[in-house]
Structure formats: structure tokens, C-alpha cells
UniProtKB/TrEMBL annotation:
Signal sequence bounds: none
Annotated GO MF terms: DNA-binding transcription factor activity; sequence-specific DNA binding
SMART domains xref list: HTH_ARAC
Keyword Transcription regulation: yes
Limits of the HTH araC/xylS-type domain: 228-324
Superkingdom of the source species: Bacteria
Record keywords: DNA-binding, Transcription, Transcription regulation
Annotated protein name in UniProt: AraC-type DNA-binding protein
One Pfam family, short name: HTH_18
Length: 324
């Protein structure tokens, strides 16, 4: 799909007939390009379904880019220096990135619209995953990453609402990527490790607001009724549960009160509660001995029997195939 570049007055200044697609990412190469509107240097590395791109741009004028719809390449963008604006496909949210912020996108390489402001030495790091690799990684990850993968498979909204700050641990991993001294297969393994580290740090950071609610939080009777209503909405369709944002809108609570209130009322996070409900439901089904382990996994909302088995064994201390 083509990318159309416009200036501030809306005039088309360039059309790139071929946007960066999956086949362009599945290679390790360095690229440089000089145009009247920007000079760009791109160093990209690909290994086993993981792509890392280090990008430096000198932008000579404000550029507004519109991209056609492309296949999902789930990944992250880290703004190390400078500022940009981006809006994902099928999204109502416009993300304004300042220096030291990051976010997760359906396709960070080709957002629907983006604005590159006039600036020198804009520095971006992009980390992307083939959909198959991303789903594989999500099987053994925490609730936020797993929920994102589930939403992606179901064709639901899985965009992250807010940009998050780049933490010191992330900065260290990014620095390691930029200063990698290895070559060949050692470089492949090293950059893969750093990309996975950034992915886990990202979703660990996303889960942090779901820590135990402060004891000072006060819930009115109306709030408590809404928290119980949120639980009913959450469990109404365990195969396609709502996101936190959707759940907040359905119940009339803001996300902070929803997460903190849910923790206070039910002594669990929103998706922690959903996970335990699924597992208890699975245990009851297995005890009846009417369905196979695979059937129980899908009946309780799991996308793969492997992930179900690991979750079940971890929670109950016995594999589902050995349930009495």
C-alpha cells in the first residue's frame, strides 16, 4: 500500500508506492535516503520472527504521512529523541509522543497517519514481531500481554490507550542494542534477547497500575454496584472478554476506579479474576469427565491447549490430564 507525504498546506510532496511490509522486515540491512523533506538512516535486524529497527531522521519541514491498511505487525515504538504524532489504523486515538515515551501498536511501521515535525536528529527504536511469533510469546506471559494477544486473534481493539515513559531498565536495554558488539549468530541471539526484554518490560509496566489498591480508596454504594456489574460484564462472554477501557465505559467507571475498586472488592485484578474463573470452570468440567482436555481448554476461552495446560498446572499443581 502506498504512503502519501504532504506538507502543512496539504500539498502532496511525495508518494511512496510500496510501504514497509512483512517481507521488507524479514531481513538484516542498513538503509539511507536523502530527500528534499528529510534525511533518514535505518539500521534493521531480523531473526526468528523478531525485528529491531534503529532509525535516525533529520526532518527539514513538517511532514504529514498517510498509510494504507497493512497486515498486523504487533510491536513497539520508542521515541528516544524528538517528537512525533501517530494514529493507528481503525483507531480513534491520536498519540502525541514526546521524548522518552513509548507505546504498542498494531503496526508501528505503518500507522494510518503520522506527523514528523521539523527537527534534527529524531531518534526512534522500533521492535516488531510476526503475528505467529507474538502469539507464541504471549502463551507464557503475564495477563496484559496475553489479553492483547487474545484481542488480536479475536479481531478486537487491542491498542494501548496511553503512551508510557521509557524506564531506566528500558533505556539500558535500548543502549545495549545501539552498542551491540557481536556479529553473526551471537548478534542474532543478543538482539533477540534485548527485544524480548523490552517487550516484557513494556507489559510489566502496563500491569503495574493493577497493584493492590491503596487502603485510602473510598467506594460509594453506587461504585460497589458498578464493580459488581463490571464482574458480570467480564464473565458474560469469557471467549471475548471486554478490554479495561470497554469495561469502564460499560459500567460508567474510570479505569483507575475500576481497577482499584475491583481489587478492593474481589481481592484480585480484573483479568486475574477472569483467569481464576476460567480455571475453576475448567476444573469442574474436567471432574465431570465428559470433555477432553482440548475441548475444555476451548470451552473456557483459551486459544491454545498448551497455554491452558501450563496455566492449569501452575494454579492447581496438577496437569489437567491427571485430574481425578
Amino acid at each position: 500500500m502506498a504512503n502519501t507525504f504532504r506538507n502543512n498546506t496539504g500539498d502532496v510532496i511525495f508518494i511512496d508506492e510500496k510501504s514497509m511490509q512483512m517481507e521488507d522486515l524479514m531481513m538484516t540491512t542498513d538503509r539511507k535516503a536523502q530527500t528534499p523533506f528529510w534525511d533518514i538512516s535505518l539500521r534493521q535486524h531480523y531473526y526468528e520472527g523478531i525485528h529491531v529497527a534503529q532509525c535516525t531522521i533529520n526532518v527539514h519541514q513538517d511532514i504529514h504521512v498517510v498509510s494504507g491498511m497493512d497486515a498486523p505487525i504487533p510491536g513497539m515504538v520508542f521515541v528516544q529523541q524528538g517528537k512525533i504524532t501517530a494514529k493507528g489504523h481503525d483507531s480513534s486515538l491520536t498519540h502525541r509522543f514526546a521524548e522518552g515515551q513509548h507505546n504498542f501498536f498494531r503496526n508501528p511501521y505503518n500507522p494510518q497517519t503520522s506527523v514528523f515535525y521539523q527537527q534534527q536528529d529524531l531518534q526512534l527504536l522500533l521492535v516488531g514481531f510476526t503475528p505467529e511469533r507474538f502469539l507464541q510469546l504471549a502463551e507464557d506471559a503475564g495477563p496484559s500481554l496475553y489479553q492483547t494477544a487474545n484481542n488480536m486473534v479475536a479481531g478486537k481493539d487491542w491498542e494501548q490507550l496511553e503512551n508510557l515513559p521509557v524506564t531506566r531498565q528500558m533505556q539500558a536495554a535500548i543502549h545495549d542494542i545501539h552498542t551491540c558488539r557481536f556479529q553473526g549468530r551471537m548478534k542474532d541471539l543478543y538482539l533477540q534477547t534485548k527485544a524480548l526484554e523490552l517487550l516484557l518490560l513494556r507489559f510489566e509496566q502496563q500491569e503495574q497500575p493493577e497493584c493492590p489498591a491503596p487502603k485510602k480508596i473510598k467506594l460509594s454504594d453506587t461504585d460497589i454496584r458498578k464493580i459488581h456489574a463490571a464482574r458480570e460484564c467480564l464473565l458474560a462472554d469469557i471467549h471475548h472478554p471486554p478490554s479495561l477501557g470497554q469495561l469502564a465505559r460499560l459500567t460508567g467507571l474510570n479505569e483507575f476506579k475500576l481497577k482499584a475498586g475491583f481489587r478492593k472488592v474481589f481481592n484480585n485484578s480484573v483479568f486475574g479474576y477472569l483467569r481464576e474463573h476460567r480455571l475453576e470452570m475448567a476444573r469442574q468440567l474436567l471432574k465431570k469427565k465428559e470433555l477432553s482436555v482440548t475441548a475444555v481448554a476451548y470451552e473456557t476461552g483459551y486459544t491454545t491447549v498448551q497455554h491452558f495446560s501450563k496455566e492449569f498446572s501452575k494454579h492447581f499443581g496438577v496437569s489437567p490430564s491427571r485430574m481425578d
